[in-house]
């Protein structure tokens, strides 16, 4: 295992922490590997990263709204209460809190009547992803506390029953749902990126370039985002709809949940890179608009983000910037409070 950042023999690391291995008794070794442990463990890792990414997507979207002078009225509480979904209401509330003191947002009719869907429908789309995350969390919590071995022994060995608790269908479905939900965060993020870089859709410099016509600016980053989103669409095909019999046709229907959990994690990895690209583009856009006009919370994000990705002053190898932003997002967690976020921390 890795102990304090160094590869260490497990027994040495455990001993240093005063933890001693348990001694397995009859059937316990098999029970640890004979059920849904692999797909559940992978699913838990995927869920934890997905939850963090969902919060980060809201912060980054708020930055984009400022960069595009988005209409804050779309996040009015009455709109979302009228729909009735708690998660949608919560996303709208967090967006209002993130942008509460921004001078870059606009009111309905001030510049335009309404924004494009990728801006206006953030609570509806991101909220639906949160609904899926809550479903996935519930299934993982049940599964990680479940007996998924076979056979199961009851009444101190008096009752031995063969059953099918090892079947991974509940987790397989959850992982397929998770994959689709996170893929949609990337999908809508890429559309916001397009609105940031396309001069026909905004009043910013074309492709956020410091020298339009001479320097490409963020043009190629949108290509990368589009490519990642397209890859996600193939990975989001549900693994659970497939089943290949094995064990002389005794195991004639299986969940493919482990494949689903791996695909979900790949989609999360791709989505983080798409959001990294949106963050880079949005930071450039708000700097053009004026840092002093930003909301306090988004300005703090910008200030910390600039420690990893400098402003675009000329064309460079942007893959390094995407990687740097990606690494920061993977490391950092954004915690939301009533009217502002706490300091972003590891």
From TrEMBL:
GO molecular function terms listed in the Swiss-Prot or TrEMBL record: ammonia-lyase activity
Gene3D superfamilies in alphabetical order: Fumarase/aspartase (Central domain), Fumarase/aspartase (N-terminal domain)
Superkingdom of the organism of origin: Bacteria
CDD domains, A to Z: PAL-HAL
Keywords, sorted A to Z: Lyase
InterPro entries: Aromatic_Lyase, Fumarase/histidase_N, L-Aspartase-like
Pfam families xref list: Lyase_aromatic
Protein's name according to its UniProt entry: Histidine ammonia-lyase
Species whose genome carries this gene: Halalkalibacter akibai (strain ATCC 43226 / DSM 21942 / CIP 109018 / JCM 9157 / 1139) (Bacillus akibai)
